[in-house]
Specification:
This protein is mostly helical and about 325 residues long. It has one domain: ADP-ribosylglycohydrolase fold. The protein is built from 16 helices and no strands.
Length: about 325
Amino acid sequence: MTARVSDDALDPRLVTRARGALLGLVVGNQLGVPTEHLGTAKAIYEAFPQGVRDLAPPPQGSPFDDDAAMTLLLAESLAEQGDFDAHDVAERWVKWMKQDGRGIGFTTLRALRLIEDGTEPFEAGRLAHNARAASNGAVMRCIPVALRYHDNVDRLIRVSTQQAAITHADERCTWGAAAVNLAARELLHGNQHFVEEVVHRLQGAPRALVEAIRRVPWEQESELPISVAGEAGYVVHCVEIAFWCAMHRPSLEEALIFLAEAGGDTDTNAAVAGALLGARDGEAAFPPRWLEQLGAGRGVATLAERLITAASPKP
């Protein structure tokens, strides 16, 4: 693994990878939104016979759906508060839910409504917990934590699980967010053989999550749990798919198109994979047309740079 960056100057490679990570999440999300409710690759092909190659323009006045919107609100809180503040993050998410809320999932909606009614954030997440539905709503938004705490692994794990627990208290969700951010941390610092390091850090994580990550180095594309009946949005599958793409897919563009057309929870699968691919390859990996099509999202890369430069002090 490459050496960590000094306090005096940021490695430009780290900066471009950080920008790529946040851009990858937003771009992947927008690419997958038009196909997310179609279910199967066959249905997607019938609706998009020419394939999914461009970012669909967002609805008027609503630039992002829940994946990107909640991610950017978390990023803004971390940048403006200087550290993780669960109440500040929760307040921002509640305000977004009331003003927009496009694409919001059931578990997230239930937790945020409890918070709106005065419930403490972590208690809201506990009350909203449904053991039968360990959904991916906490991993889809977690990447700002990897940027903010890239040089402090213990803090990274702690805050990853805390931001998750506001809405998704299931351990598969909290540890799933930690796993994604641990992978992003390794990729930000140039370690493309990241799976072993992540597994090493997942002491105490649910077995299903650890086993899914361990499969990744030897797994074939045809074995990926992309469109499993009744399990669209399952957090363990989302993490596994993102890890697999970051390890096996050489092209960010082709990987995100593949996920947008593959069926299942296309927007979140592409968002989480996009974050890891962007952390791996940096901002230069994105087709210029996608960056142009982002429109209101062009400030995303600047926000990523704010987070990476505000990295927490060494413990």
